[in-house]
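As the next step, I needed to go through one protein, both as residues and as discrete backbone shape codes, included below for the reader:
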Amino acid sequence: MKRVFFILLSATVVMSCSKGGGASAGKPGSKGELVPNGKSKSFVAERPYGMVAIPAGSYVMGLADQDFTNTPEKATLKTVTVSSFFMDETETTNAEYRVFINYVRDSVVRSLLAEAAGDGGSDGDGSSIGDFAYMSKKAGENKTAYQEFMESQGGRDGYDESKKLDWSVPLRWKTSEYPDAQYAEILESVYIPPAERINNERVIDTRKLLYSYSWEDIESAVKDKSRGAKYLKKESIAIYPDTTVWLKDFNYAYNEPLYDGYFWHSAYKNYPVVGVTWDQARAFCNFKSKLKSDYNESLKKKKQKAMAFRLPTEAEWEYAARGGKENATYPWGGPYLQDDRGCYLANFKPKRGNYIEDEKKGTYTYTAPVKQFPKNGFGLYDMAGNVAEWTESPYNNSTYQFASTLNPYLSNEAYKEPRKSVRGGSWKDVGYLLMTGYRDYERKDSARSYIGFRTVQDIPEGAAKFKKRTK
């Protein structure tokens, strides 16, 4: 009798648990099964503007053709595999890099104005310095709990929510439109002092254009089996290109017009940016990532966090340059530098003392606008000639010999290696240096009139397909 009573009691407990809301597993309607939240549709990678998708594949990495220079850095050939990624279809242009410059300039000015604005005020149209106050100051009683907490803590080391800038207020750059004397004092502080001006020309002091960001040295953290602040690397980079490279690289040539106007003149807006160091190129990649991340955060319907933009590894660059062709001497296949009509296929130095590919037109003595020469099989322009390009990889034999055959890259503390691999050849180089397998290098703190860069973005392995970016 006792046994029957115990069985009935147990059944009652089971039935009561199945009816109670707190004891069910999974979301409502899952019938006690383990059902993940969210819809189960496939992830589609959105193609960023100005980039093309490079499909995953394998190829023989290295210089298979004759090496006339007999350099010791020539490594043995080996087959490697590269994952898919997006890559800029052209080298980064002056116009694109100026967006970066203007962002840093505006950030510096807005930060100075916000510090002086105090608690804010006025109409928010820029007619008073108070309009440029930090967002948290303008919130007043409508501050979020997080904003109140951050202000009570006095901010924190790194990003400070309490010092978020209000980008909706327009800046006034014309001296006739300055709203008050305090605004004028702050704006004038970012220009070169009158005593240092040439011909009394009022220009921004580029020494104040510093871009600050941080990144994590993941490889060192994994090696030490630890995580923490000591692996957080903070950078503050002067990001204005070195325009003096046009004079320093060519001591006995008249390149003053390029020194004066190559970067800022509208005639050169679609030309590749030069005079940029490896560190500045990496800072640009961080800015590009931040720009996309900030946009996604501003949307009411949040998007998946975008993959970061970065410089390509040497293996990725060489694979992309070959355009899907096996044993491609040049991005167009090769082995010739001209097509069947006798037209040169890249911007380079075709003959001794001759820097012009088409003497009848008399064009492209130096760099050329992007997209002026045929693209390769992947849809990439100027993977040979025009300007050589920075890669993320250090320059040494171990890059080829000891790196993995799967996405090869020696990344552990690679940022400490002063020599960085540069690929593609440039407008001043002979045809041999344009070969897809040819390697060259430059010190990462050096800027040259013949070195630029382009960026890449990873495509998640789980992505179902690529999506064209909507206009």
DSSP finds eleven helices and 14 strands in the chain.
